[in-house]
What we know:
Phenylalanyl-tRNA Synthetase, Chain B, domain 3, BirA Bifunctional Protein, domain 2, Phenylalanyl-tRNA Synthetase, Chain B, domain 1, 3 domains, alpha+beta
Amino acid sequence: MGIHDLDKISFPLVYITTSSNYKFIPLNSDKELTISEILKNTDVGKDYGDILGNSSRMPLILDANQNTVSFPPIINAAVTTVTTKTKNLFVEVTGINKADAEDMLSVVATILQSAGFSLESVQITGAKNSSPKLEQKNMILNPSLANQILGLNLNTSKIISSLKKSRLDASPKGKNIVCTIPAYRFDIFGEMDLIEEVALGYGIQNLEPTLSPSQTIGQTNPVSIMLKSLSSIMTGLGYLEALNSSLTSKRVLYAMTNRNTSKIISVRDSKSQEHTILRDSILPGLLENLSKNIHQSYPQKLFEIGTVFSINTPISEKLNLSCISAHQDSNFTEIKSILQSALHTGFNIKIETKTTTHPTFEDGRCANVIINGKSVGVIGEINSKIIENYKIRVPVVGFEISLSESILEFL
């Protein structure tokens, strides 16, 4: 945004681009500088030059006599400097979003108008419109909704009075209120914003809090108690808790772990390639954590308690516990003892294991985890090819069990 001495400008203005070698006398200077010098050597250039990115062309506003008016959005030219002798002002606002630029101009124009200036519009030929845009808009407010939200019992007249205290004109129309929104109040989008203005006009200090008619005593969810206890046990066993996103990628969840991809839950219009699907397993995320720390010392021991998702009608979610241990001597016996200790210490649950095969684990070193005759997870030594995929330098063992189908069933 730039404010200029209007009497120093000859219309029409043109908005062009030029090279960084273009010279003019910038504001607060008495000598010509190239645009490149302005960006490199002046405080304002250093502070705001990044806005222009790596563009080889620089924006410039020239008047009819080819005098430089502004190098937006960096600095004005010295020729239009505003002084105590300035009588007429010219305001220019540039931006990458037309609506935002027009909103900003409406604020500045309104401030100048309230200070006693008379406003004149500027015709913009390229956009085929004129500015500033100071058109007001009308919005309907339901008094009943306002009272319901604020917990008050105000009549229409009092609501209108409160709106006017917030500098919003208003008048009754049937059972509703028509509010006139000035152009500079572009922060008002809908009825809830109007209700906020009613509250401000009425006085926040006048809103009296009241107790809810129904009083209950809260308590910690038993599931939360169990999860906290399990987390403490795993930490006591020497494991560090990880917290990964439920959104992940096909690479992490399937490609790197040789898992089947037939039941993917994809995110529509994902903005990131690393967050395209919902996870159905926690273990791949922990392996990804290890791959980010291959230059750190071993052993590395991680666990995570989190939500996983599966395709049903509707999509179902459940809580899982996964744990991995990476060091030169890690083996099946070690990780099984960790699982046995965690479940027996905290919940007096005994487990059994039955040999199975799984694409993530080594054949012959993998088993189903069985509780009360029901398979609730898998445990074993991670497949050496998967370890190579992640560039991990030591053997890795791990397990993943469903808490929803094991511990939570005892709550």
